[in-house]
Specification:
Helix content is about 45%, strand content about 20%. By secondary structure, it is of the alpha/beta class. Helix 4 links the parallel strand 4 and strand 5.
């Protein structure tokens, strides 16, 4: 018999992405991670109505959606809680504030559970079980994390690392890998590509220094 599958999903005010992920991902029980204000929204009540028709129901974890460490702590606790029952836990981080979404992704990364993001299609993020965060990152990815400060034009940032003796192809591969794992944010302004760190990058930067 397959283990019970728990879908932990971040949630804001719009249930469209969440419902798309719910259709694409097989699960037995839904766990919604959201802010206090969202509990009053019609979109939240729709999720409750959908899940009330099933046998498992729906659990809710309330967080401060603008406090990264609170979100990270509570998503980690939720993953631990359901994993201890022998269930398979997966995480969808498509909804809610960027702070909440980043925290859910990092919690998945730390706990080694599958993480998904749903826009027009469902995307599974690369998660490796049994390794520490430091071990999951390549040496060049760690260099990029430690070097990233604020917002910088991509070509300038790459050139800065090359001037320190790194190979351009390795630098570009590391940046692509970190973008795929949502460690870096990318914006385009006046035809130029800019990179900037986010809460996940800053969290790892602090811990890599330790």
């Amino acid at each position: 018999m397959s283990p019970t599958r728990i879908l932990i999903t971040t949630f804001g005010f719009d249930d469209t992405k969440i419902q798309s992920a719910m259709r694409m991902l097989a699960y037995d029980r839904l766990v919604v991670v959201t802010g206090e204000d969202s509990l009053k929204k019609d979109s939240y009540k729709r999720l409750q109505e959908i899940e009330s028709g099933g046998t498992a129901g729906m659990d809710t974890v309330v967080v401060n959606v603008f406090d990264f460490m609170d979100c990270l702590k509570k998503v980690r606790e939720a993953i631990d809680k359901y994993s201890k029952t022998g269930a398979e836990v997966i995480v969808n981080f498509s909804g809610g504030t960027k702070v909440l979404s980043d925290a859910a992704l990092l919690a998945s990364f730390q706990k080694g559970v599958k993480a998904y993001h749903c826009e027009d299609q469902l995307i599974e993020l690369p998660i490796i079980k049994g390794l520490t965060a430091r071990e999951r990152l390549t040496e060049m990815e760690r260099k990029v994390i430690l070097k990233m400060e604020g917002k910088v034009e991509r070509k300038e940032f790459e050139q800065m690392l090359v001037e320190e003796g790194n190979v351009i192809s390795s630098v570009q591969k590391a940046i692509r890998g970190l973008k795929k794992m949502e460690f870096l944010d990318v914006t385009v302004e006046d035809g130029n590509i800019y990179l900037s760190g986010n809460d996940i990058q800053r969290y790892h930067k602090e811990n890599l220094h330790q």
